[in-house]
Write a structure and sequence with these properties.
The chain is an alpha+beta fold and about 180 residues long. About 35% of the residues lie in helices and about 15% in strands. The protein has one domain: NADH Oxidase (3-Layer(aba) Sandwich). The strands form two sheets. It has a three-stranded antiparallel β-sheet, with helices on both faces.
Amino acid sequence: MDVLECIAARHSYRGAYTGDPVPREDLKKIMKAGLAAPSGCNKQTAALIAVDDAELVEKIKGVIDPPVARTAPAFICVLTRRICACRDRCFAVQDYAAAIENMLLAIVELGYQSCWYEGHITDEDRICDRIGQILNVPPEYDLVCILPVGKAAEKAVPPKKKAFDERAFFNGIQVRNARG
């Protein structure tokens, strides 16, 4: 699949996964894609933890409430460090977002499915902190996202996207009449 086909094929998958394990070599390929992402002022604030040990996977699933990805055989946890890059600006969010998108594309390319779970684990109940404790994440890192990784057990149905001309413009935004 070429990169444009992969981008078009990628979407969030929230269905069940088969019980097939994800080979460690595939997890490495996915993580290498994430680490190859651009990074503000090359500070490389994103770090990754692949979790393929069945006992750890179950411990992580046990703290996610409400449950998501209950049948995923593996996770990639995304960490960040807030490091000032230039002019007292921090690009940690942009860094880890770029890493996540690269990994989501690699996941699709390798025949797996995933979903970007961030808000669900970083809101007031701080599920991310409990996952971080399970994985011994040092205090200088924040666990900001989990990506379940596995083969889809159900047909992956992409969401309907708005038409290109509703969201993409050339040389400015053309004001449309309210009636179309």
